[in-house]
Amino acid sequence: MLGIGKTSGCPVPARKGRRERLCALKLTAASAPSTHSKEKMPPYTNYHAQRSYPMPDEPFCTELNAEQRALKEKEKGSWTQLSHDEKVALYRLQFHETFAEMNRRSNEWKTVMGCVFFFFGFTALMIWWQRIYVFPQKPITLTDEWKAQQLQRILDMKGNPVQGLASRWDYEKKEWKK
Length: 178
Known about the structure:
It is found in: Mitochondrion inner membrane. The protein is mostly helical. The protein has four domains: 2-34, no CATH class; 66-103, no CATH class; 106-135; 140-176, no CATH class. It has helices at 18-35, 66-75, 84-94, 99-103, 108-134, 144-156; strands at 2-4, 11-13, 169-170, 175-176. Strands 1-2 form a two-stranded antiparallel ribbon.
């Protein structure tokens, strides 16, 4: 039960189904580019210069204006007739950067270190704020007074007199043994 579609030569089932819709999509997709205006795309440039391979496959500037074209024509003659500025302009048409510009260090590290120190400072500020306003007060058992009373209690009870704290305490002089 295959029939021929009205818009294309695709075989389709007698009833309108999936295959006819796909053929219609193919036809629409094939005719879509012709409905748009034909704009010239810029040419693909494979310009990539780096320190290890400083000679790229293509020049940096591929589309030249009238002044640059005239300079390129002048380049074909004697280079002694070219001024220093014209030689620099020709160099800039061929290459994006000089070796000195390629080897120049960037100042990106300053931004990175600034961000790192900013986040350290922000983190310290958050910790300080939490200690003041969020965390509860220290328990009474962590105060110096409580620790001193606890030590005195252990010494008064003479706990572990052979090898413990009581063995290092002089009970007659009320001080630590030397």
